[in-house]
Each structure stands twice: as structure tokens, then as C-alpha cells.
Design brief:
Length: 262
Amino acid sequence: MRFLPTEFSAATAPTEIRALVAQLSGLSPDEPISVLPGGQEAAQVALAKIQPQLYRHDRNFLDGHVTRLSPYVRHGLVSPQQLMQQALQVAGVEAGERFIQQLAWRDYFHLYLAQFPQAAWQDVEPYKTGWLAADYAQDLPADIAAASTGVRLIDQLICELLQQGWLHNHARLYLAAYVVHWRRVRWQAGAQWFLQHLLDGDLASNNLSWQWVASTFSAKPYIFNLENVEKFSRGRLDCAHPSNAIFDDDYDALQAKLFPNL
Ligand SMILES: Cc1cc2nc3c(=O)[nH]c(=O)nc-3n(C[C@H](O)[C@H](O)[C@H](O)COP(=O)(O)OP(=O)(O)OC[C@H]3O[C@@H](n4cnc5c(N)ncnc54)[C@H](O)[C@@H]3O)c2cc1C
């Protein structure tokens, strides 16, 4: 599996890690190799760096102060309880609130799935898109899997997923909305695809988030437009490329195009 945080630099990584990455790359040349330092020590270092007081203002920006701790949380190296305590210690109740709210989403998804295990793969409710479940393609199209949709910002995000095994929450929302609403693919296919590639792949958070985007676990479908991506990507994605024009409209116009039966 793979992980390449943006701050990782092959030049400055410890020699043993570089040697290990080189050795593993030789064994499977087509697979990017994870360089996320594993283990309790690395998890504690990352935990000590969280900044909930900045997070509350910029967590929706792709370069915002999110923690990237999810792979450690997923694999049990840091508990949500520890994260909450650290947030309270660093930022206090008021400044730490937004961060703790996000932890609560995780808890909610886990508790919901424990109570209703069928929600992992079955629609909780019908789609509220004007389309029936049968109108959605069963399988993930090959161009999506290969990051060759021809839509520049989408291909950039897919490459990030494949190479790093981690995506910012907003990027996950963009990709999921593109798959389900622009390509009309059932959310289950997208959820399975994410689970194959995410280092933090987690059945509850992932699948219920996909259902939330799809509208089978929420009151309305989640969609975005190019203006939103321009704002939250702050130049990290090639938003000006003409292939992104499919997103370049106001929300009413996009709704009318994507959900004409409503
Ligand atoms: C389509 C889609 C798929 C997702 N799949 C996963 C997944 O497989 N595994 C996973 O852990 N999260 C998933 N999420 C939730 C969220 O995107 C990630 O938890 C978050 O981006 C991880 O980055 P971070 O550690 O920097 O989070 P931070 O923003 O720093 O938050 C700290 C911790 O809180 C929890 N958290 C934060 N936001 C959420 C959220 N919206 N829902 C649930 N928990 C949250 C995570 O444990 C995270 O590590 C998904 C979201 C979407 C929209």
C-alpha cells in the first residue's frame, strides 16, 4: 500500500526508510510504496502537531490544517479519545469544538453501522435525485479507475488517491459526487474503489459518507461547482483547464442538468 504525504521528501527521509522503499519498489515496480512512517512513535509525533485553533478556520481548504491522522486512527495507533483530549489541551473547548465535531461524525458512523450493519452496502433510503437505483451503473468505469476521465481536476484527484492513499475530505466529496452524480454510478462501486486505495479505509466512515453524497443517507444529493473547487483548492488543482467546464455553472443549473426528473 502507498502513502506519500506532501511534506515527505525522499531526500530527507531517514536512510532506513529510503532503503526499505527502494527495496519494496524493486519487488513491485508498478505499485507506489507507502512512506508513511508506521508505528506508535510516529503516531504520537503526528498527534502532538495538531492545531485545532487553525483547523476551525481552514479545515475545508485542501491545504488547511487537517491532521492527516486518519490512517493512524484507522489502524488503532491513536484513539479518537486521545485526539479529543489533545485538542482540548491545545485549543480549549471553544477553539477545539469544530475539530471535536468531526470526531463525532466518525463516532456516529460507527455507532450507526453497528446498529444497522446492512447499511454498509445497501441503500439506507431511496436516492433523492429523481433517478432510481436501477438507473445507476453497477461498476466503476475503467477511465475513472485509471485516472483518465479527461476532466483535469478529477484526474488530478484520482492520481492523488492512487499515489498517496489519502485525500482531504473535500477532495473525497468532489470525487464521490463526480462518480455518483456526473457519471451516474452506484455509490457502492465508488465506496469499494476508495476502500481499495485509502490507507484509512474504514467501512463505516467511507460507505456512509458515500451514501450521504449519493442522497441515500441524507435529504439531498451533494454536488459542487467549479467556483467551489477554485475557492477551496487555492491553486492546488488546475481549475482553469477547459475540461473542467462540466462543473462551471451555478447550483440551480447543475441540479437541472444532473437531476432533470426532479
Ligand atoms: C466519500 C468519503 C469517504 C471517506 N472515507 C473515509 C474512510 O475510509 N476512512 C476515514 O477515516 N474517513 C473517511 N472519510 C471522512 C474524512 O474524509 C476523513 O476522515 C478525513 O479526511 C481524514 O483526514 P484527517 O485525518 O486529516 O482528518 P481531520 O479533519 O484532521 O480529522 C481528525 C479525525 O477525525 C475523523 N474525521 C474527520 N472528518 C471526518 C468525517 N467527515 N467523517 C468521519 N470521520 C471524520 C477522522 O478519524 C480524522 O482522522 C470519508 C469522507 C468522504 C466524503
